[in-house]
Write a structure and sequence with these properties.
The chain is an alpha/beta fold. The chain has a single domain (3-565), classed as 3-Layer(bba) Sandwich (FAD/NAD(P)-binding domain). It contains twelve helices and 20 strands. The strands form four sheets. Strands 1, 2, 3, 9, 10, 11, 12 and 20 form an eight-stranded mixed sheet that branches. Strands 6-14-15-16-13-19 form a six-stranded antiparallel sheet. The protein has a four-stranded mixed sheet with strand order 5-4-18-17, covered by helices on one side. Helix 6 (143-157) packs across helix 12. The longest helix has 21 residues, at 545-565. It is globular and about 65 Å long. Keywords: FAD, Flavoprotein, Oxidoreductase. InterPro entries: FAD/NAD-bd_sf, GMC_OxRdtase_N, GMC_OxRtase_C. Residues 428-552 form the Glucose-methanol-choline oxidoreductase C-terminal domain. This is GMC family oxidoreductase. Residues 219-329 form the Glucose-methanol-choline oxidoreductase N-terminal domain.
Length: 570
């Protein structure tokens, strides 16, 4: 029998970026907050060792244990969904900091177009630009309304960047710290894109260009350009993460407690309110009920949706009828691009997760889509993230797959290869969604989340278009051989792509088309909030974390307002 604990003001499920932000803001406001983290405690000191690509990038030391919790996957409803038994297409974080520990640090604001994409697209191109199979919708909030929260997240994280992107939304302030070093490789990209008539700019980066103390008094150090960001924790405390910013801020208030190895299995509901959550201690196996005045789901996209489903809160989306919102609008990303092989040797060893230059000329609605059969676009970048030897083995396409010639080409091209890539936006389709699996359960007897997803005609057309643009840039950079990316076929969950999963708990202006309102407050339970990339009604041509951070600050404001006044916030 589960033991009932003392009631608190706020309980968060997961302690990564969103859980840390909610905790810091609510604790500063005087609310008693408990964070339930199903992983273990960790921090900068745990990463102060020799870089180990095999341990972290191949064996996934920082990631979720899929023998305990995973998802099942299929491309369409006619297929049988099977469990993802090892990390592949995306890398699910676990332990304190979540994916905010092993991320690269690219920190974008979504474009104004993104938040009103349905209205703006129909106004410019008509209601039939995309077929009725695409469930496009506005987010229930505008860029202008969200801008102060973007600003707050950037100041908390100390983001390094420059205001040179002519297409971004209006900003109240400059970036807190200057951009990172513009290396010779980035200068090559800058020259080529300028020659082609574009406006290149440095990536906004959470790998900081200089030491910085944020408004809460937390110290973030300067990047050492070691090239070990994605899949790794930072031993310098220079890659902004929750465990060096918002989590310490919350702890200093005296109003915050984290419980580790606490796996939440159910949200408890009574009428139009939730009463708390039930969790299992992963070490002892004991069950606990944590009552709370407000519950905030702050775990990863997939788990937020799963918890709502197993707790039967909200109506599950049904692709056959179009009814329901929970699990709807799952989106991912596409990765068009081109690889260039050069004669000269380059320093590709050093770098950082967010060291790069970009152009946005082909992103959002920054160009006329009248004569193309897709909407939106992609941010196109050259990044210098550090070429590590195990996972990096580029060879030209005519190279034998093994033998002496393969080895020779591999060694020769290791430091003579660059890639120009795009992060392509993903539009919601009626057949791409999340649900519960009736055949498979996790280690605690809870049904696994089932993902039904495939690339669409929109994806394929956009991928082909952006690949050609990337190929043009690479040729202008002077590559002797340019290899464009292969056209999209069916989505495969095996090779790594991005950990940019979105949708399933989408936000909006009405309960008819969304799960939560623009404070991320659940339409069916006024003291339940769900925040993260699951709120995105579609996915943009950027990394999601900057927009997730902004939504988390918006949500924190909502939780505090609710704690004072109760009721619906919109």
């Amino acid at each position: 029998m589960a033991k009932t604990l003392e009631k608190v003001d706020v309980v968060t499920v997961g302690v990564g970026w969103t859980g840390g932000i909610i905790a810091a803001e609510c604790a500063k406001a005087g609310l008693k907050v408990v964070g339930l983290e199903r992983g273990k405690e960790r921090g900068t000191a745990d990463f102060q060792q020799v870089h180990d690509e095999y341990r972290y990038a191949i064996r996934y030391e920082l990631m979720q244990d899929l023998s305990k919790e995973t998802i099942t996957f299929r491309n369409n409803r006619k297929q049988e969904a099977l469990p993802m038994r090892q990390m592949g297409s995306f890398l699910l974080g676990e332990n304190l900091g979540g994916s905010g520990t092993h991320w690269n640090g690219q920190t974008w604001r979504f474009l104004p177009y993104d938040f009103e994409i349905k209205s703006m697209t129909e106004k410019k191109y008509g209601a039939n630009k995309l077929s009725g199979d695409y469930s496009l919708q506005d987010w229930g909030i505008t860029y202008e309304e969200l801008e102060p929260y973007f600003d707050k997240f950037e100041k908390t994280a100390g983001i390094s960047g420059e205001v040179k992107n002519p297409f971004e939304g209006k900003r109240a302030n400059q970036y807190p710290t200057p951009p990172m070093i513009k290396t010779p490789l980035l200068q090559k990209f800058e020259k080529a894109t300028t020659n082609l008539g574009y406006t290149p700019f440095m990536l906004p980066s959470a790998n900081l260009s200089e030491p910085y103390k944020n408004p809460d008094g937390e110290q973030i150090n300067a990047c050492q350009y070691c090239g070990f960001c994605e899949r790794f924790g930072c031993e310098y405390g220079a890659k902004t993460s929750p465990e060096i910013t918002v989590v310490p801020t919350a702890k200093k208030t005296g109003n915050y407690e984290i419980r580790f190895q606490a796996n939440v299995v159910e949200i408890l509901k009574d009428g139009n309110k939730v009463t708390g959550v039930k969790y299992v201690d992963r070490i002892s196996g004991e069950e606990f009920i944590q009552p709370a005045e407000a519950v905030v789901l702050t775990s990863y996209v997939l788990n937020n949706a799963k918890l709502l489903m197993v707790s039967k809160i909200g109506e599950q989306y049904d692709p056959a009828t179009g009814r329901g919102t929970l699990g709807k609008n799952y989106c991912y990303q596409i990765l068009p691009g081109a690889t260039g092989f050069f004669d000269e040797q380059m320093n590709v060893f050093m770098g950082a997760g967010s060291l790069g230059m970009s152009i946005d000329d082909w992103n959002g609605d920054n160009f006329d889509h009248s004569k193309v059969d897709f909407i939106h676009g992609a941010n196109i970048s050259l990044t210098q993230t550090g070429t590590r030897p195990i996972l990096s083995n580029p060879v030209p396409p005519d190279t034998p797959a093994w033998g002496a010639d393969f080895k020779k080409a591999s060694i020769h091209n290791y430091t003579r290869t660059l890639g120009v890539g795009g992060q392509g936006a993903s539009m919601p389709h009626k057949e791409n969604y999340m649900s519960l699996d009736s055949a498979y359960k996790d280690a605690y007897g809870v049904p696994l989340l089932k993902l039904t997803y495939n690339f669409t005609d929109q994806d394929r057309a956009l991928h082909m278009f952006i690949t050609k643009k990337a190929e043009e840039v690479m040729k202008e950079m002077g590559a002797k051989t340019v290899v464009p990316g292969n056209p999209l076929t069916d989505y495969d969950i095996v090779p790594y792509q991005t950990t940019h999963n979105t949708g399933g708990t989408i936000m909006g202006a009405s309960p008819e088309n969304s799960v939560v309102n623009n404070y991320l407050q659940h339409w069916n339970a006024e003291n339940l909030f769900a925040v993260g990339a699951g709120n995105f009604a579609h996915n943009s041509g950027y990394n999601p974390t900057g927009t997730v951070g902004a939504l988390a600050y918006r949500c924190a404001e909502g939780v505090i307002k609710y704690s004072k006044n109760g009721g619906s916030l919109v």
